[in-house]
Design brief:
Blueprint: H1 6-11, H2 20-26, E1 35-47, H3 55-61, E2 69-79, E3 87-93, E4 101-109, E5 116-120, E6 125-134, E7 137-149, E8 152-156, H4 159-162, E9 164-171, E10 178-187, E11 191-202
Antiparallel strand pairs: 1-2, 1-11, 2-3, 3-4, 4-5, 5-6, 6-7, 7-8, 7-9, 9-10, 10-11
């Protein structure tokens, strides 16, 4: 049983190449009740007009943000649980005039998969992600989708419809407690499908020490 944070397990020695605010952001111990919250503003939350066709499936699996806007307040809660080594995410988008929208997922790392993690949403649907440290940033690149059922991970060709994902979190050189993030889902033929990005302030980690 390891007590290293999920992304430290995935990155190995490259963990030390992350910017300080990014390391502090994800220094959360498996098998604990650690919790971190970041708050900030999304400069833009956008999706292509035709992506509305994907929204019913996104709502079913809890994987897509159905609204659009600029300067959208947002907070993200990251939690660990004492009973497992999983990292839980709850992204809360606050679009004006609408109830808060929650995008919940969890991430797992298997030592057999090296620098790869899998982010799962409802019903065992997951996205495989390659994790890297690049000039202080934590970067995730899409390796494809899977469906976990009965102990198996079955590849799914969702990239044919959804495109491939890129996510990057970079330290803000002007403020030691701030970072920026960018998420882009791009289809090889149809261009950008979803994108959002913004700037965040890192709050303190809570949990028993």
């Amino acid at each position: 049983m390891t007590m290293q944070p999920v992304f430290q397990q995935a990155l190995g020695p490259a963990w030390d190449r992350l910017g300080d605010v990014v390391r502090r952001h994800y220094t959360m111990r498996p098998f604990s009740n650690d919790h971190v919250c970041v708050r900030g503003t999304m400069d833009e939350v956008w999706h292509a007009p035709w992506a509305a066709l994907l929204m019913p499936f996104g709502r079913l699996f809890g994987a897509l943000v159905p609204h659009q806007g600029k300067e959208v307040p947002m907070e993200v809660h990251y939690r660990c649980r004492p009973e497992n080594a999983t990292l839980y995410w709850d992204r809360v988008f606050r679009f004006p005039g609408r109830p808060p929208f929650h995008f919940r997922s969890h991430m797992e790392h298997d030592a057999a998969h090296g620098s790869e993690v899998t982010e799962y949403v409802r019903f065992g649907i997951g996205m495989r992600l390659a994790v890297s440290a690049e000039e202080g940033a934590l970067v995730f690149r899409d390796l494809g989708y899977v469906w976990r059922i009965a102990g198996l991970r079955i590849p799914l060709p969702l990239g044919l419809f959804m495109g491939t994902a890129y996510v990057g979190e970079r330290p803000d050189p002007a403020d030691a407690d701030r970072f920026t993030m960018k998420m882009l889902l791009r289809h090889r033929w149809f261009g950008d499908v979803f994108r959002y990005g913004g700037r965040f302030h890192l709050g303190p980690r809570t949990g028993s020490q």
